[in-house]
Please model this.
Amino acid sequence: MRKLSYRPPDGNGPWTPSDLVARSRDISERVVEEQHLAAAGVVFAAAVAVRDPADPAINAIGPLLSGSILASSAWGDAPVIAPVVCHIARFRAEAEQMALVQALGTSAPQCWLLLFDAVRANSMPATMLAAARLINRLRARGAPVLVGRAGPSRRLWLALGADGVEIGLGRLEHFSLAEQGTGHRGPGHHPPRWEVPELLCSLPHSLARELMRSASLQPCLCPTCAQAMSEHERLAGTVTHNAWVVESDLRHASGLSVAQRRASLLESLSHARSCALSLAEVTGLMRHLRHLWTWPDVVRLVDEQLQEDAERAA
Model:
């Protein structure tokens, strides 16, 4: 990181919000240059996290985005993806979200990448509703919206209006600002979690192994599981199993409207709750499945919001 051309000046610590604004053009150009010199097929715009509406960093996100788009156009026609990194729980109100969207300026990237700080599958419905509102506010600007580090929550994001998701195939199941640049050591090596499509979740290997021995779940049809001769071989192929599950989910969602995705999700949730109750004796499982009971509330809140918006427009 110290070798990157857009690093902060040596000895001065991280960029301050005022520095980011004052030097946005130079920083953006260097961020874009590094990617083009690495032969990137797409370019990520320079971005900074915004923790709340009063965060002075909000003044930098527009200049960094416009500077990145301008710089990228000088290199060619690579699509520009604009990250929007925020603590969505502090951007619930309409005025707060409008301030964030307006701060982005009028620049038009080819795609938005939303990274919601500390939003997990079992987050409160009000937080998920706020995320859905921001997704649709950005979609209204004409470019598709992806949700980063979506993990198993991808099913909900797609049902709430996201055009696509970024997946870590069992790793990075949600985004957290606390994990960015802290310098702290991680918890050590953990194998990627195992996708369980019937329960709309992913699980650590210890629980996945127990479920493999259960007669409550259907046999997995992915090539990894079909060819494996043991539980160990199945778990060794976790990433390819997860890729198959994710691809199946995305292929299914691509043929549906957003309203149809919500209806399909509600049906899947009903089935998943029945499966979960039949597996209630598996120690530690239910704490991974609280979203099966909260996501229907999220869908209901979104439907109510859409109805209110339609009535207001009429």
